[in-house]
Amino acid sequence: MKKKEISLSVEVYDDKNEMTADMQNLVEKAISAGKNAYAPYSGFSVGAAVLLENGEIITGSNQENAAYPSGLCAERVAVFYASARYPDVPIKQLAVIAMKNGEVVDTPAAPCGACRQVLIEYEDKQGEPLSVILAGKYETIKLERSSDLLPFAFGSKELTGE
Fold first, then answer.
1. What is the pLDDT of residues 92-101, one digit of tens each?
2. Given CA atoms 103, 108, 111, 113 in this order, what sign does their dihedral have?
3. Which residue did the predictor score with more confidence, 46 or 68?
4. 59, 32 contact by CB (below 8 A)
5. What are the residue boundaries of the structural domains of the chain, listed by start?
6. pLDDT tens digits, 107-138
């Protein structure tokens, strides 16, 4: 038997002024996107903003549907649109916020499992890290790589031993 330990390091910001101007801008774009969410069933609006290597920012919001699970999460809306519009441009960062009753929730909301897998696949495809910013009203968390969100993703090095 072998025992492996998996660890990760995150940056935690208690004040938005601790973040870089680029991070603050990306979070603000995610908040604006969250206001466009279609969330009549959950009442939980999510916004995402993707910063591409070419400087473009693409946003997305969750889109629910009565024929659950036919809706789509904000993260995937933003990432898929970015890839469709700029297929060969790497994604540098993704910011995610969640809102309830028009206000950003107190603590950061993390992407669902499907979104985590999609982010990791794009990170693998581009061969460089895709950092993730999870912003709440009182705290923001930054992960350097999307793969830190899901250490045992399909095809992960932890599973393949590569």
1. 999 999 999 9
2. negative
3. 46
4. yes
5. 10-160
6. 999 999 999 999 999 999 999 999 999 999 99
DSSP state for residue 153 in the 8-state scheme? -
- The fold for domain 10-160 equals Cytidine Deaminase; domain 2 (3.40.140)
Is the predicted pLDDT of residue 158 greater than 60, yes or no?
Answer: no
* H/E run at residue 34: helix 21-34
> Is the predicted pLDDT of residue 70 greater than 60, yes or no?
yes
Sign of the dihedral defined by the CA atoms of residues 82, 20, 136, 153, in that order: positive
Is the whole model's pTM more than 0.85, yes or no? yes
28 counts as catalytic: no
Q: Helix (H, G, I), strand (E, B), or coil: what is residue 145?
A: coil
Among the listed residues 18, 28, 53, 75, the single catalytic one is 75
Residue 129 is encoded by which pair of tokens? 């890290």
Strand positions, DSSP E, the chain: 10-13, 44-52, 57-61, 91-100, 103-104, 131-135, 140-143
What is the per-residue burial (b if ≥16 Cβ within 10 Å, else e) of 49-81?
bbbbeeeebbbbbbbbeeeeeebbbbbbbbbbe
44-52 vs 91-100, strand pairing mode: antiparallel
Site of tokens 């495809």: 125
Rounded to an integer, what distance in angstroms lies between the CA atom of residue 19 and that of residue 140? 9
